[in-house]
Amino acid sequence: MGVQRYLGVARDNHEALLALLEHHGATLSAPWSLLRPVFEASFFASWILDPGTVRDRRLRGLRCEVLDCYQQRAHRAAFKKLPEARRLIEDAERQQEQESLAMYRAEAAALAEPFDRVHQKSKIVAELPKLSFARGRGHFAAFLERTWRLLSGFEHGLGWALLRGADRGEGTEIPGGMGMVLSIKDEEFVLAARRRTHCWPTHADCSRPAIWSRRLSSCQ
Description:
By secondary structure, the chain is mostly helical. It has eleven helices and two strands; from the N terminus they run H-H-H-H-H-H-H-H-H-E-E-H-H.
């Protein structure tokens, strides 16, 4: 179920990217921001399906569900600062502990895995080189990491990422610096878009990803 959710997120953002390119054009930063969730959601779908054993795939799926649960708790906990909401949030946390988390602990026990290890967050940078499609391919994992960091930089509005993914036009000196006309760098964006397709799972039905890849090519 987690894999279907991740692929749904990737597909939704991919379709939004196609619509943006078709109706609004390749602007400086928005296309990059749509590529990041495609990359990350596709990575987690692949990460769950990558192991060769059913047990390990179940364990990775469980880890993602547990992380989802604790992220929800963190979201709710922000409202504890409101006195009128604190009691309701604490009641919801107790209910979650007795239901969802109890079920997750039972599943971890059935897999003979300590729950504190199930609760560990999966880090993309650490896990990318371990995926089957990245192992034994030289520096391929490093290029994937580079792509992810570039997408993350765009998502957070960082200047270095903006300049890396942009062609620079005429500049005008202004007090304390320089104003410059920037436009999206086509070759950098197309390269990142192609690399994110490597994170699509090959274990599931790949007919849709193949269609996505062809449609993206038609927008280049």
